[in-house]
């Protein structure tokens, strides 16, 4: 039986590490922020927004790409804001 090469093991370890980091990034997006639904479901067309508030501005900036993906998947507008400066809210979708 042939043993896997060290290059293959390094590639598997790298892919595992990348998957772990991606899982931590996605988990942090949902766990570190406070989510509130809003909008007007009776308007034509109905507008449903989701506001995600993070404690630090760098967290709000770090999770903007995931807000775009969430907005695309759910079809809702996702607003990212920071507790430190709520007037600088950022909207995806």
Description of the structure:
The chain is an alpha+beta fold and 93 residues long. It has helices spanning 6-31, 57-62, 64-74, and strands spanning 34-40, 47-54, 77-82, 90-92. It is built from 3 helices and 4 strands. Strands 1-2-3-4 form a 4-stranded mixed sheet.
Strand order of the largest sheet: 1-2-3-4
- Major sheet: 4 strands, mixed
- Indicate the mean pLDDT: 88
Number of strands: 4
* Helix content percent band: 40-55%
Total discrete domains: 2
Characteristic terms for this protein:
alpha+beta, four-stranded mixed β-sheet, 46% helix, 93 residues
List the topology elements.
Elements: H1 6-31, E1 34-40, E2 47-54, H2 57-62, H3 64-74, E3 77-82, E4 90-92
Parallel strand pairs: 2-3
Antiparallel strand pairs: 1-2, 3-4
How would you summarize this macromolecular structure in one to three sentences?
It is built from 3 helices and 4 strands.
């Amino acid at each position: 039986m042939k043993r896997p090469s060290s290059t293959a093991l390094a590639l598997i370890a790298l892919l595992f590490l990348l998957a772990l980091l991606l899982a931590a990034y996605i988990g942090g997006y949902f766990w570190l922020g406070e989510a509130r639904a809003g909008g007007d479901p009776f308007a034509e067309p109905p507008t449903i927004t989701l506001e995600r508030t993070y404690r630090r501005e760098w967290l709000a900036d770090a999770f903007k790409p995931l807000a775009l993906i969430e907005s695309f998947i759910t079809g809702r507008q996702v607003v990212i804001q920071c507790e430190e400066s709520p007037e600088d809210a950022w909207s995806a979708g």
